[in-house]
Design brief:
261 residues, alpha/beta, 7-stranded parallel sheet
Length: 261
């Protein structure tokens, strides 16, 4: 059995890649209380990493996720943080470094999604979208550079297929994710050779709250004949977390081929 394989069965789907060994690594995931962020935090904990994750308003979910992670490993912490606030981020990072003195992995997962027709997008909605989806990863990454550089670590941004494709009802969301994809590429050039920076861009994902009719529609449009799952995206994140450090500046679209239309 290859190193790290024993952890993989706990999080990988039947069709997904397996091995990811993060023993003795420290991972920082923004927006880790719910949904995809929670799944990433749990997967990295199962792979042996120390986990710090942030939450903003989801305090109940953060407590639940922290309790789940601590069943796997006691080395975990949940920190309330507004990724739009540089001072708040600095305090959060200080707490992580005080606890563990190192940072190997940063996952910029915290994000905002909204469905609004372009003519109806307000200035406030536009600014809030960019503050969360672009300013947030920029500020968090800036603060983490010294620690991740010292560890010769990695930064993984969570983008979207919407950053590659124009969706009529998501103008501000698509524009913000496109900006994050470009920020990924710029960071990769700027922070090399010490830090590898990549991005995962999920397509249509199904979850408990999904509309079955919408899922069916998108599954029929997708070459792989299904919508994506959290496992699909987590598998891709875990790949980038342990891939060759030479791999950098990439936006990996995880959409079952939906973007090929």
């Amino acid at each position: 059995m290859a190193a790290g394989t024993k952890y993989a069965a706990n999080w990988c789907g039947n069709y997904n890649a397996s091995v990811a060994n993060l023993e003795n690594k420290t991972a920082f995931i923004t927006g880790g209380a719910r949904h995809l962020g929670r799944a990433i935090a749990l997967a990295m904990a199962r792979a042996g990493a120390r986990i710090a994750f942030t939450y903003h308003s989801s305090s109940k979910e953060a407590s639940q996720t922290l309790a789940e992670i601590k069943k796997i490993s006691p080395e975990a912490m949940a920190l309330k943080c507004d990724v739009r606030d540089g001072q708040n981020i600095a305090q959060t990072l200080s707490a992580i470094m005080e606890q563990w003195s190192k940072l190997d992995l940063l996952v910029n997962n915290a994000g905002f999604y909204e469905d609004v027709l372009f003519p109806d997008v307000t200035e406030e909605q536009w600014d809030n979208m960019f503050a969360t989806n672009v300013r947030g990863p920029f500020l968090v990454s800036k603060q983490c550079i010294p620690a991740v550089r010292a560890a010769k670590g990695r930064i993984i941004n969570i983008g979207s297929l919407g950053g590659e494709k124009p969706w009529a009802t998501h103008a501000h969301y698509c524009a913000s994710k496109a900006a994050l994809h470009m920020l990924t590429r710029v960071m990769a050039k700027s922070l090399a050779p010490e830090i590898a920076v990549n991005c995962i861009a999920p397509g249509m994902l199904s979850h408990e709250e999904s509309d079955p009719g919408l899922n069916k529609k998108f599954a029929e449009m997708t070459p792989m004949r299904r919508t994506g799952t959290t496992d699909d995206v987590v598998s891709a994140v875990m790949y980038l977390a342990t891939a060759p450090h030479f791999l950098t500046g990439q936006v990996l679209v995880v959409d079952g081929g939906l973007g090929l239309r």
